[in-house]
Amino acid sequence: MGTKDKIELDMENIPQHIAIIMDGNGRWAKKKRLMKKLGHKAGADVLEKITNVARDLGVMHITAYAFSTENWKRSEEEVAGIMDLLRHYLKDHIRNARKRSIKIDVIGDVTRLDEDIQQQILTLKELTKDKPGINLHIALNYGGRNELLRAIKKIAQKSNDGEIAPDDITEDYISSHLDTAGVPDPELLIRTSGEERISNFLLWQIAYSEFNFSDKLWPDYTGEDLKQAIWEYQNRDRRFGGRNS
Ligand code: IPE
Ligand code: IPE
Ligand code: MG
Predict the structure, then answer these.
(1) Which of 20, 22, 27 to mutate to test the pocket of ligand 1 (most atoms within 8 A of CB)?
(2) What pLDDT score was predicted for residue 6?
(3) What is the percentage of the chain residues whose pLDDT exceeds 70?
(4) Rounded CA Rg of the chain
(5) For the chain, where are the E strands, in sequence order?
(6) What is the domain extent for residue 108?
(7) I need a surface site. Which of 62, 66, 92, 131 has the fewest CB within 10 A?
(8) Whose CA is nearest to atom 8 of ligand 1?
(9) What integer pLDDT is reported at residue 245 of this predicted model?
(10) Which residue's CA is minimally distant from atom 12 of ligand 2?
């Protein structure tokens, strides 16, 4: 049990929602002396595989950090490469939507993305909205602080318009104004590449998530690694501030 060869998971205790910070594409490409873009491409392929493994295990939601509000600081060439890759990824999913049982949507401030990408996102969301399978939420131009800021502005506007009073604002009310409205908080957050930080991901939602940091670079991450992370999650003592024994 719990060894790399044979991981026996408790199928009654599979996390409903797994958040993933897919980090290490750049280092992976560098190690292989490839262009960065190929690292990002390999990373996108791995997301595909991991989503399928998660779906087969019964996970309901994956939220994958693909591009942060801070990633605009990178070179124009790298950003353009990532956006091009995104176009291909979305196009491929739109073309094959009928065959796949994945519901896809995007979180983050999409208004800063190019018009054609915004259009592709809308099309894909509409095409997959009734799919029964796993929900893949791709975080694009996403930042936890930016998400909170946008939510607070929406709530302030409602208060200003007399729709709500300050006392109507509850934790659930705030959650329902985030990009993740309606999605349960992630029980498990995985970050690859050896970095042990949050980098502005899902700040509100991870209040009680279990963290799993992997040294693997994201393009090297496998379904077995995911199972191992879930196994470790299942062996944690989640207390939520109380006592279990
Ligand atoms: C994660 O990989 C993908 C994005 C942030 C877009 P990185 O590109 O950050 O990979 P490293 O950290 O440079 O290895
Ligand atoms: C976090 O990775 C963002 C994504 C994976 C999209 P970064 O590589 O941007 O994070 P830092 O800069 O190491 O904190
Ligand atoms: Mg990185």
Answers:
(1) 27
(2) 83
(3) 98
(4) 19
(5) 17-21, 61-68, 103-107, 135-142, 188-191, 210-213
(6) 17-143+185-233
(7) 92
(8) 26
(9) 84
(10) 199
Give the residue-averaged pLDDT of 41-70: 98
179 flagged as catalytic? no
- Residue 133 falls within a domain, yes or no? yes
Q: How far apart are CA 102 and CA 34, in angstroms?
A: 31
Tell me how far the alpha carbon of residue 25 lies from the centroid of ligand 1, in angstroms: 5
Query: How far is the centre of ligand 3, averaged over its atoms, from the C-alpha of 23 (Å)?
Result: 5
Q: CATH number, domain at 78?
A: 3.40.1180.10
SS3 (DSSP) at 30: helix
**CA of 79, nearest ligand number:** 1
DSSP label at 90? H
Write out pLDDT tens, residues 13-26: 999 999 999 999 99
Number of structural domains found in the chain: 1
CA-based nearest residue to 105, from 134, 71, 70: 134
Three-state secondary-structure class, residue 89: helix
Residue 9 near residue 201, CB atoms below 8 Å: no
Instruction: Identify whether the C-beta of residue 178 lies closer than 8 Å to the C-beta of residue 7.
Output: no
- Collect all residues with Cβ–Cβ distance below 8 Å to 235 and sequence separation of at least 6: 2
CA dihedral 86, 92, 95, 98 (to 10 degrees): -110
